[in-house]
Design a protein that fits this description.
Oligomer: single chain
Strand content: 5-15%
Shape: globular
Low-confidence stretches: none
Radius of gyration: 21 Å
Length: 386
């Protein structure tokens, strides 16, 4: 009964991870879940209060403008000017979305035809694959390797592939590796996109989460970036608003118009109260963001130090709220993840779920208190695999 498009969809990797986790939880109430990317902190109180107030506005009880209220688009533009020194036209260079997961799937249907090629990071966020599959396009992975700081090496992509490529997904700070991009790298990306007419979609979901005093740069800070691409950002990670489902895309006017067009057919935009609270989050005092980053950095330090103590030597992430650690000799990613789940009751995400080049690693989330991180490492230590 499924359409051909649905049959092309990849298996939902995280659904199986959740199934296994729930199976263990039936018999144990002490599972430590480091496997998912669901923020554990509450939405800041001032954002919640704004939502409460806005919910009583009768204007928001009607359909919102299909492309979003102008005040939210202006808030997005203000945010980019303040945080990235990038000028955004709120009328033509902003698309409001019900979370960027939606946008990352939609954009392939906006820009790809059957037979086109899309370049994706490997390892990378699996939902990039879904939109490409629905569009009937072909996917080519760009290996992210430790020896290249988890950045793709464009010199190793054949000219034939680059000629046929119409779209490239990038994501820095990176999920799952925690790597960040440099100005020089984004300059390469813009040059490549211009030379081969490749649209760039930069997933900036973790853009506010950088460590060691460094702010992760926006792709749009690079001269020429808006000529060829867009950036997507979500409020889920920066403001602990994952359940609110609000994000946006900014950049190239033609791509933004295409996203707004497809969303005109899918949605009636977001509840106005959420839009007002989102605008408030973007423009109000940002102390809550800096405090959140401090929390994640402290957790990162605890995880890396404790893992090193038992001989598990992983690279400290430079951004995001994930760590990307190698599995011990003799184990595949999935076998090691299963060992931790069933023997130590610690959930991690096996790296092969993020692509072929994720094999040999597991992803750990920094989404629980420091004592839980310490306890997780103590349990792993007892397995005597390092």
């Amino acid at each position: 009964m499924k359409s051909d498009a649905l049959k092309r969809l990849p298996d939902q990797f995280f659904a199986e991870l959740v199934r296994k986790t729930m199976e263990v939880k039936k018999n144990h109430d002490d599972v430590i879940n480091l496997g998912q990317g669901n923020p554990d902190q509450p939405t800041p109180a001032h954002i919640i209060e704004k939502m409460k107030d806005a919910s009583s506005n009768p204007l928001y009880h009607k359909y919102a403008p299909f492309s979003g209220f102008p005040f939210l688009k202006q808030a997005v533009a203000d945010y980019y000017l303040r945080e990235c020194n990038v000028t955004i036209d709120p009328e033509t260079e902003v698309a409001i979305m019900s979370g960027t997961k939606t946008g990352l799937v939609e954009v392939s249907q906006c820009l790809l035809n059957p037979g086109d090629t899309a370049l994706v990071p490997d390892p990378g966020y699996p939902d990039y694959w879904s939109g490409i599959a629905l569009a009937g396009a072909e996917m080519v992975g760009m290996p992210l390797l430790p020896e290249n700081d988890f950045l793709p090496d464009f010199q190793k992509i054949s000219k034939d592939i680059l000629t046929n490529a119409k779209l490239m997904f990038l994501n820095y700070p990176n999920n799952p590796t925690g790597a960040v991009a440099s100005e020089e790298f984004f300059q390469q990306v813009v040059g490549l996109g211009q030379e081969h007419s490749i649209h760039i979609v930069h997933d900036y979901a973790y853009g506010a989460i950088g460590f060691d005093g460094e702010r992760p740069i926006s792709f749009l800070e690079t001269p020429g970036a808006k000529d060829i691409g867009i950036e997507m950002m979500t409020l889920s990670k920066t403001y602990n608003m994952a359940g609110w489902r609000v994000g946006f895309a900014v950049g190239n006017k033609e791509i933004i118009a295409a996203i707004n067009l497809i969303q005109d057919h899918y949605y009636c935009s977001l509840f106005g109260g959420i839009q007002e609270a989102a605008a408030h989050a973007l423009t109000a005092d940002q102390t809550c963001v800096s405090e959140l980053v401090k929390t994640y950095e402290s957790r990162r330090n605890v995880l890396v130090e404790e893992a090193s103590r038992i001989g598990w030597n992983g690279q400290a992430p430079a951004g995001s709220f994930f760590a990307w650690f190698p599995v011990p000799d003799g184990y595949s990613s999935e076998a090691f993840a299963d060992l931790l789940l069933y023997e130590a009751r610690v959930v991690v995400a096996p790296g092969n779920g993020f692509g072929e080049h994720g094999e040999g690693f597991v992803r750990l989330g920094l989404l629980c208190e420091e004592e839980e991180l310490r306890e997780a490492i103590k349990r792993i230590e007892k397995l005597n695999v390092f």
